[in-house]
Amino acid sequence: MPFLFSFLRLLAVVMALLAVPTIALAQAAEDAFTRLGADSFSDTARAIDILVQSAHPNAAVVIEALADGRLLAGGGAVAVKTKEGGFLDARTGQALTAAPAGLNAVRLNNNVRRVIQGALGGLGLINPDPGKRVAAAEAVFRARDVSVLPVLEAAIAKETDNRARRALREAQAAILIAKTDAPPFDRIAAVDVLRERGDQDALATLRALPGDASPGLKEAQARAIAEIEGKLALWRAGQNLWYGLSLGSVLLLAAIGLAITFGVMGVINMAHGEMVMLGAYTTFIVQEVIRARFPGLFDWSLAIAIPAAFIVAGAVGVAIERGVIRFLYGRPLETLLATWGISLILQQAVRTAFGPTNREVGAPAFMSGAFELGGLAITWNRLWIIVFAALVFAALLAILKLTPMGLQMRAVTQNRRMASAMGIRTGRIDALTFGLGSGVAGLAGVALSQIDNVSPNLGQSYIIDSFMVVVFGGVGNLWGTLISAMSLGVANKLLEPYAGAVLGKIALLVFIILFIQKRPRGLFALKGRAVEA
Amino acid sequence: MNAPTPGALTSSLLYLDGVSVSFDGFKAIRGLSLTIEPGEMRAIIGPNGAGKTTMMDIITGKTRPDEGTVMFGGSVDLTRLDEAAIANLGIGRKFQKPTVFDFHTIEDNILLALKSKRSVLKTLFWQTESQQQKRIDEILGIIKLTDKRERLAGSLSHGQKQWLEIGMLLAQDPKLLLVDEPAAGMTDGETAQTAVLLKEIAKDHSVIVVEHDMGFIRELGVKVTVLHEGSVLAEGPLDQVSANERVVEVYLGR
Amino acid sequence: MITRFLLSNMDKRGYAFLAIVAAIGLLVPLANLLMPAGSPLHVSTATMSLWGKYLCYALLAISLDLVWGYCGILSLGHGAFFALGGYAMGMYLMRQIGSRGVYGNPVLPDFMVFLNWQELPWYWYGFSSFPFAMLMVLAVPGLLAFVFGWFAFRSRVTGVYLSIITQALTYALLLAFFRNDMGFGGNNGLTDFKDILGFNVQAQGTRAALFAMTCVMLISGFLIARGIVTSKLGKVVIAIRDAESRTRFLGYRVDRFKLFVFTVSACMAGVAGALYVPQVGIINPSEFAPANSIETVIWVAVGGRGSLVGAALGAVVVNWAKTVFTSGFMAPYWLFALGALFVFVTLFMPKGILGTAQGWWESRKRPAPVPAPEPAPAE
Ligand SMILES: Nc1ncnc2c1ncn2[C@@H]1O[C@H](COP(=O)(O)OP(=O)(O)OP(=O)(O)O)[C@@H](O)[C@H]1O
Ligand SMILES: [Mg+2]
Questions:
Q1: Does residue A215 belong to any structural domain of this protein?
Q2: In chain C, whose CA is at the least distance from the CA of A341?
Q3: Amino acid C244: pLDDT
Q4: Whose CA is nearest to atom 10 of ligand 1?
Q5: Per residue in C168-225, pLDDT tens?
Q6: Is B145 helix (H, G, I), strand (E, B) or coil?
Q7: Which atom of ligand 1 is nearest to the CA of A528?
Q8: Which residue range is the domain that position A142 belongs to?
Q9: Looking at CA atoms only, how far is residue A523 from chain C in angstroms?
Q10: Which domains are seen in chain C, by residue range?
Q11: Residue C261 — left, alpha, or beta (φ > 0 → left; ψ -120 to 50 → alpha)?
């Protein structure tokens, strides 16, 4: 019901505005030009209001010139000095051939400047570009300048673009709700409009309702605030969920290679984090080369870095497997120590080669910036990392399930001796598996170079998390790793607002420690005699 | 202690009824029922995968049955106890794959098995008494490893490890011995000696022997239970059992 | 009974170790206090404190060897017990500062005044008393190990899983102690100590006494550990290391044995930490860093796990090498050397310096050795 009333009201206003004869407007404009020449701050301010409200065709040009100190007036004449140095007649907008004599720049003070700001916002409302109109409406929404109201209403009447009309209505509502002399119905209708807008700004506007409000208005306000708060809480939860998924995908990327080496080979690879680091440094080198030689390819740098990082990290992985790990099968704890040693060596090697400080890895255009989805702010780099993680996961799954190598890998996982007896070259499979796991870690490094500091310590900061993910998910099961990474990521981000980042993390570590007691082999454990041995 | 304890539900030393267990949907044991009387020696045979070892896993607490009753000494429900508790009740086990403590001397292996209090403090301040030392020496003699007592168990041959495990069983002095394939990997002579040894043990212990070697079973001359696909196929003296058509079918295939 | 427990089965190597540590504990402080600074026999206070630090590490290594070398539990969180013992000592030392702190608050340590805390948190109560603090040096790491182990061993978490959750434990503590509102000085930890038992911590005499005390504790720790591993319990523990489930089928409650050894070991690590703090003058959260715990493991591996003397030796050798390396022009290469050491030892010297030397010695004495058993499965 209130809506109907307010609609009728609006309709009436619009009709009235439309009915105002053009002559009256022209007279009003003339009055404004006279006032501009009066060299009085209050007259200047009034003139601006009149120009805006009369929607004079040159209003924008004149007010902009005023703001820049390019408006000249004197003896009834008003002229605009263009940015290029030419002159225009402010009334007609026609170019003047010569510089008008005897005119002085119209002076400004702070009050006038403020009025100009509001006026420029109001003027944007009638800009031909709908995007600009929306922006202007937003500005008005924030400024809540009552003087813009008539222009706003005129603009609403003329508006054809839906988005722009909504923005204009919201701006109007923001003004009306605080306008104590506005009809109560209008103000209640305004509350509705704000409720529908439903964001933090709407909430702030609603909260700023003056104390004079009628009980009905107050009730509407309270209801709207409650509803918006509920909705915002949902969005916030949604946003945290998004952060959680994003963290989860990072964890997945970091851990999935480990899941392969640990799951298939029972090898605790403490140098796994360094494979990630190598991937990140490979990205850095690729970008350096591109910057130096092929600057045009910069947007492709990540695409080029992906195979490069896979190959570099994979090759290092194969080298580690053939050089060290293969002598230590069946001695997982020794492997842990040896690979820790390798991780120290790799870290120090990178530190020696690239220095201990962070290296800058740039973001290609498609990775930078953000967009809004409902109440969610989504950055492109996070989105792409999630997509990338999903692709890597799917590819690995396909490799394990569909290729002969995957089959052999699974055979080796389940029964090494039997597989070897059946003619599978376990040594080769081990090397390839380790290379694959390390290569995937390198891929993670490409992604992490976009959101984290590329430094020799990069790997260290992920290794413990990665282990937690693998152990929580259960060894030898990629789906377990996926679910584990996502749930740990989401849990971490959902805990953060309550516990803070550090306590949240501690809570998760403690949770995993306790969880392992309950299910010593993780969420999705391999069963059978083999694992009991 | 061989008489049923008051409140006992059965007079049998070991009583299995309707026991089933499955691994990932595969039913390894289905509705297995079996009773062992005090002082009895029983041989269990069955083709590979019949569930013989799994049955021992259930009795010794390694595997929990999905359903069924497992009672010891008439009143103790074994399904509620863990391995250590079951061992301390007096059930000893020799594994199919001999497992001894490779990095201990043979003598220490026996010492560890020797019947005694198993608590942390008791073992911390343990002093071997002369009587216990005598028993250890005795067992070393029985299993013919006296002259190798200082050697590490890891250096023994397969057959010697089997014997060491039997020696450890003796040292444990359990009421019930579960012996899984004691003759596997032994020469005929050693097999015969093992049979003699087991018969000796059976004089004052209850024993369950699992074995594939029919000659060995015949040597023992005791009641035989045939397991097949997780349940009892036939039971009785060896001759009667081996005349059973279904047993023959199972062993020879269709 | 106790002396029999401690000294029975002592072998030559054990006596040699005891003799050497006792001699060092006696002679070094004397050389520091009595010899004039110019004399070639003089040991500077700095050197003495440095070696005091090594000996603390040796005690830590022995405690780790007890659980890893003998019981097969690879703890990657032993640094946590060391650090907790260190914090307990640090709290005592903080309370001894009294009103001599920068802010002159008689009760609150400086960092609390700085954080605008009004009163001492309850868990700081009692730490002004030395006996209480020493009790905590044992009790806090011991209790943590007991609770952690009680859960972990009962649910049969073993092998790499156990290693990883011990690492998670020390990592969680690292994060926690970094927080200012934990009340342990946050990032900066506890430092600027003044007195211990009324003696100036910086004074030469106090330093010498601390050094001697470290030797005493190292000897005690060695004797206790040795008593444990040579007892029947030690045999059970080794049996658990090599064939855990077999031990269970013999009727041993594996979890209790592990818990006992783990807890004793944690207390020992706590004592090492407590002796370490007054000698280096600071304790901060970085002692909880997982990397520290792993480094401890490598000391044990280098010296020879499964040998208490070896573990102590490994700690001293590696740390001495670290000092030599990091103080010279080769400083940037220390991590290369350490990393290579990890790889080399695991690949080529699985028995460590002592085990390898012993094997070599025995093979010379007896040309035909008994066939060695397969290497123990590490799990
Ligand atoms: N822990 C387990 N997980 C999965 N399957 C198992 C497990 N234990 C036993 N099985 C299966 O149960 C079946 C019975 O095994 P069991 O070892 O009891 O046979 P068995 O009679 O001892 O055979 P054998 O004579 O070869 O020793 C086998 O098919 C085996 O694969
Ligand atoms: Mg079997």
A1: no
A2: C339
A3: 93
A4: B28
A5: 999 999 999 999 888 999 999 999 999 999 999 999 999 999 999 999 999 999 999 9
A6: coil
A7: 3
A8: 2-207
A9: 13
A10: 2-365 (1.10.3470)
A11: alpha
Contact assessment for residue C240 and residue C254, using Cβ atoms and an 8 Å cutoff: yes
User: In which band, very low, low, confident or very high, does the pLDDT at A34 lie, cut at 50, 70 and 90?
Assistant: confident
Residues A336, A316: Cα–Cα separation, whole Å: 17
Most informative mutation of B24, B45, B53 for ligand 1 (most atoms within 8 A of CB): B53
Query: Does A341 contact B at CB distance below 8 Å?
Result: no
Q: Inter-chain contact A514–C151, Cβ cutoff 8 Å? A: yes
Residues A320 and A171 in one domain: no
Most confident of A225-229, A439-443, C375-379: A439-443
Q: What are the residues whose beta carbons fall under 8 Å from the beta carbon of B186, sequence distance 6 or more?
A: B159, B162, B194
Candidate of A521, A529, A531, A532 to mutate for ligand 1, largest count of ligand atoms within 8 Å of Cβ: A529
Residue type, A319: A
Q: Are A456 and A356 in contact (CB under 8 A)?
A: yes
Q: Is residue A200 located within the same domain as residue A324?
A: no
Mean pLDDT confidence for A151-162:
81
Q: Is B28 helix (H, G, I), strand (E, B) or coil?
A: strand
In a domain? residue A284: yes
Binding partners of C (≥3 Cβ pairs within 8 A): A, B
Residue C270 clears pLDDT 90, i.e. is over it: yes
The SS3 call for residue B101 is coil
- The residue with tokens 């102690």 is C177
Looking at residue C63, its pLDDT comes to 97
The whole-number average pLDDT for the span A271-288 is 94
Are residues A337 and A197 part of one domain? Answer: no
Residue length, chain A? 533
Least confident piece of the model among A399-403, A415-419, A506-510, C339-343: A415-419
CB C277 within 8 A of CB C143: no
Choosing from A188, A207, A226, the residue where a domain stops is A207
CB A482 within 8 A of CB A384: no
Beta-carbon separation of C335 and A334 below 8 A: no
Section B217-235 average pLDDT = 91
User: What was the ipTM of the complex prediction?
Assistant: 0.90
Q: Exposed, middle or buried, A2 (CB in 10 Å: 0-12/13-18/19+)?
A: middle
SS3 content of chain C, % helix, strand, coil (to 5): 75, 0, 25
Looking at the structure, do residues A411 and A468 belong to the same domain, yes or no?
A: yes
Per the structure, how many domains does chain A have?
A: 2
Q: Which chains touch B (3 or more CB pairs under 8 A)?
A: A, C
What residue owns the CA closest to ligand 1's atom 16? B51
pLDDT at C125 over 60: yes
Ligand 1 atom nearest the C-alpha of B212 is 25
Chain C residues close to A330, C-beta within 8 Å: 377
* Whether residues A187 and A249 fall in one domain: no
| pLDDT given for residue B245 in this prediction | 85
Is residue C22 pLDDT above 90, yes or no?
Answer: yes
Cα nearest neighbour of C254 on chain B: B84
Q: Considering CB atoms only, which of B93, B119, B123 is closest to C249? A: B93
Instruction: Report the distance separating Cα A263 and Cα A256, nearest Å.
Output: 10
Ranges of beta strands (E only) in B83-190 are 91-94, 176-180
Q: Which of B21, B23, B59, B213 for mutating ligand 1's site (highest number of atoms within 8 Å of CB)?
A: B23
Kind of pairing, strands C199-200 and A370-373? unpaired
CA distance A187 to chain C (A): 49
Query: Please, which pLDDT band fits residue A12 given cuts at 50, 70 and 90?
Result: low
Q: Is residue A301 part of a domain?
A: yes
Same domain, A99 and A176: yes
How far is residue B155's CA from residue B174's CA, in Å, rounded to a whole number? 27
Return d(Cα B148, Cα B140) in angstroms, integer: 9
Within chain C, strands assigned E span 190-191, 195-196, 199-200, 282-283
Residues of A with Cβ-Cβ distance to B97 under 8 angstroms: none
